[in-house]
Amino acid sequence: MWNWEFAVEALPILLRGFVNTLIATVVGTVIAAILGLILAVAIRGLPRWINWLVRLLVAFVRNTPLVVQLLFVYYAFSDIPGLVDVPALVIGFIVIGIHYSTYMSESYRAGIDSVPPGQFEAATALSLPPVRTFTAIVLPQALRATIPSLGNYAVAMFKDTPFLFAISVVELVTAAKNFGGSTFAYTEAFTLAGIIFLAASYPTSLLIQRLDRRLATY
Amino acid sequence: MNDNVTTLLNFLPQLWEGVQTTIILTVAGSIGAVLIAIILGLSMTSPSAWLRVPARIIVEFFRGTSLLVQLFWLFFVLPLFGFDLDPMACGIGALALNYGAYCAEVVRSSIKTVAPGQWEAAIALSLSPTRRMIRVIFPQAWALMIPSIATLLIQLLKGTAVVSFITLSDLTDKTTQLRQSTGDTMFAFSVSLIIYFALAWLLQELMNFLERRAASALGRRRPNSRTDRREARRLARADAVRRDRLASHAAANEGANHSTGADPTKNPFPGQGGGL
C-alpha cells in the first residue's frame, strides 16, 4: 500500500508546489489585511446609501464560493483580448485576498467597536485631528483585539489555497494530484500533502492561541 | 443580452439539476457534519481521557488538513484500499468530516459555556448523566451554538463548489457549461453567484428560525434579532427627536430669561455657571 520510493520521489515535487501555496497565503493575507481595514473604515465613514451598497457587496463576496469567484475572474481575464497574460497565481492571491478581506473587515469592525468610547472623547478633547486619532489612538488598541482573529483567517486561507486547483495553479494539492496522475501513487502523494498541511497549520494555530492569550486585555 | 436570456431559458433544466446536486450535498453534508460535531463535541467534554483524547486528535486532524486533500483522499486513495465510493458519497463524506470537525469545537465550547449552576442543579436533582445532558445542558448549549454553526454551514455550502473537481456536476460545473454555451463569462457567473447567494440567504434564514425556536424553548428570545434591532432604531430615533425638542425648548427659555443669545449646544448645562 505504502511505497517509500514513491514517497521520497514525491516529496520535492510537493515542496515545490508548497512554495506556491505559501506565496498565495502570504500575499493573500497582506491584501486581505489591508483591504479589510479599508473596508471596515469605509463602512463606518461613508454616507448611508453607499454604506448599504458596500455592505451588500461584502455580504455577496462573503456568501458565494471562492472557487466560483476564482473561475469567474480567471475566465474574465482570459476573455479580454490583447491583455498581457496575467499568471494564474496572481489572479489566485488577488481573489483569495479580496474574499478574505470581507471576513477580516468584520474582525476590524469588532476591534474598533471594542475601543472604549472614552478614548474617542479624550482624543477629541485633546483636539487631535481625526486621522491622528485613528492611527495613534484607535487603531493600536483595535489591533490588539483584532490580530488573533486575523491570524485565524490567515490559517483558514492557507487551507483554502488548494481551491487554486480550479484555475490550474500548481500548488501543493495540485502537485500531489499531478504526481498521483502520472505514477498512480495517489496514496503517498495525498497523504504527504495532508501531513504537510497539518504540520504547517497546527503549530500556527497553537501559536495564535498563545498570542490570543497574551494580547487579551481582560 | 437577449441571446443570453434565450440560452439561459433553454439551459434552465440543466441548471436546476446542478442546483439540486448542490442542495443535496449541502443538506446531507450539513446533517452529517452536525451529527459528527455532536458526537465529537460531547466526547471532548467527557471526563474520560479515553474519549477526550481520540476525539481531540480526530478534530485537529480534520481541521488541520485541507478540505480538498480529504476529498481527493476519499476519491483517489480509498479505491486503492478496496473501498469504492461513488463521487456523491465522497463529496458528502469529505464535507461532513471537515466541517463536522469545525462544528465539534463549537459544540464543545458551547457546552462548556452553559452556566455551572445548571450542572450543579441537575446533579442536585440527581438526574442521570444522560438525562442531565439531554434535558438540561444540551438544549441550552444548542441555543448558544446555532449562530456559529450557521456560519460554518454557509462555509459548507460554499465548500460544495469543489465537488466539481471529482466529476460531480453541481452548480459550479453547470456554470462553466453555461459560460461555454453563451460565451459570456460575466452573464454565466453572475447567474450562478446570485443563485449561491440566494441559497446562502435561505440557509441563514433557516438557521435563524432554528435559533428562534431553540431560544423560545428555553423561554428566551433570540438575541439581536431583526425585530430587536428595528425596535432599537425606532427608540433611538424617538430619543433623538425628544432631545432635539428639549434643546430647542432650552434655547427658547434661555432667550426669554437672560436674552444672552447663548448657543445651547455650546453650553450643555445652562444655569450652572454658564457665563464663566
How would you portray this structure in words?
The complex is a heterodimer of chains A (218) and B (276). By secondary structure, chain A is an all-alpha fold. Chain A has a single domain, classed as Orthogonal Bundle (MetI-like fold). Chain A is built from eight helices and no strands. Chain A has helices at residues 4-45, 48-62, 66-79, 88-113, 117-125, 130-160, 172-183, 186-215. Chain A is flat, with a radius of gyration of 21 Å. The relative contact order of chain A is 0.16. The mean pLDDT of chain A is 89. Chain B is mostly helical and 276 residues long. Chain B contains nine helices and no strands. Chain B has helices at residues 2-44, 49-64, 67-77, 87-113, 116-124, 129-159, 171-182, 185-217, 226-257. The termini of chain B are far apart. The interface between A and B is large, with 37 and 37 residues.
Tell me briefly what this model is.
The complex is a heterodimer of chains A (218) and B (276). Chain A is 82% helix and 0% strand.
SSE arrangement:
The complex is a heterodimer of chains A (218) and B (276).
Chain A: H1 4-45, H2 48-62, H3 66-79, H4 88-113, H5 117-125, H6 130-160, H7 172-183, H8 186-215
Chain B: H1 2-44, H2 49-64, H3 67-77, H4 87-113, H5 116-124, H6 129-159, H7 171-182, H8 185-217, H9 226-257
Q: What are the key terms here?
A:
heterodimer; A: 218 residues; mainly alpha; MetI-like fold; 8 helices; 82% helix; 0% strand; B: 276 residues; 78% helix; flat; disordered C terminus
CATH class of chain A: Mainly Alpha
- Number of E-type strands of chain B: 0
Helix content of chain A: over 70%
Series of H and E elements of chain A: HHHHHHHH
Q: What fraction of residues of chain B sit in β-strands?
A: under 5%
- Structure annotation, total helices of chain B: 9
Distance between the termini of chain B: 71 Å
